[in-house]
Amino acid sequence: MKIFITGITGSGGSYLAEFLLKKDSTLNIAGSSRQLNATNHPFLKKIKDKIRIFNCDLCDFGSFFRVLNKERPDAIYHIASIANVKESFDNPIAFINNNINLTLNLLEIVRTIKEIDGYNPKIIICSTSEVYGIVEEKDNPISEKNALNPINPYASSKLSQDSLSYVYQESFDLNIIRTRMFSYFNAKRKDLFSSAFAIQALEIKNGKRSKLLHGNLNSKRTFLDIRDAMESYWLCLTTAKNKNVYNIGGNHIISVGGFIDVLGEKLDIKIQKELSQSLVRPIDITLQIPDCTKFKNDTGWSAKYGIDDSINYFLEEIKEYHF
Length: 323
Description:
Elements: E1 2-6, H1 11-23, E2 28-33, E3 51-55, H2 61-71, E4 75-78, H3 85-90, H4 92-117, E5 122-128, H5 153-172, E6 175-181, H6 193-205, E7 212-214, E8 220-223, H7 226-238, E9 244-248, E10 252-255, H8 256-267, E11 273-275, E12 287-288, H9 293-299, H10 307-322
Parallel strand pairs: 1-2, 1-4, 2-3, 4-5, 5-6, 6-9, 7-11, 8-12
Antiparallel strand pairs: 8-10
């Protein structure tokens, strides 16, 4: 099977490529990157000899078309996006233009080739729970039927990706699955609060920092192990039903501030906290608890790793990638 991952050098794309090859070493995996010589990217060091990477600007229709038309993958995971929520408030035009245009190009390319010769791969759109915005406690857990009310430019761009994908599956009969992933541990990204906190906590333990800087500590989320998150994407390919939208997320609820306390316990240190206004978003999500019943019923998926195992694994990866 030929699989194409947009943004394969990013954190999510590289995790996915690694996981898929562990699942099935015979998979033919390729992906896109804006970087030249991207095979040497540190996120891909474990699998660089097992994948193919195309230097391609996904916002350039012609360049993207040539790659996909040549490759003709059986499945496409669309992960590529600019994803930093805080930065999206500072650069909304860049986020909106990039994330919408590269998605529109992908869908239009597949539609165009399909009309020529019937090519119609499975497309998995990797979106985010951020599209739900602020959801009152009475409306949690959040199902796929909840209202979509994004509150930051990044989330708005992801909602546009979601909406465009629905239009193309209904209007042009493309084989699309939309996922809305809730919070998961991603050690490769420094800009997620969990990773930023873990890096700072380890620096405190190593005597290189005295305080942990933070933004809003009151937001409550669930957390999912990176391995469970990637397993869910595998099931989207092998088991989930086309033309569906799925929530995917963990079970363990914890506040942002509570996560700092857990890190202190894990590392056996006392963490002195300090609010940094530069880390405070203009508006923030207060509570996000996923209802994943639909995905579980259609695929048999469930989270395998408890919160303790997940954090231990996460911290080891933080050390590997950042120390």
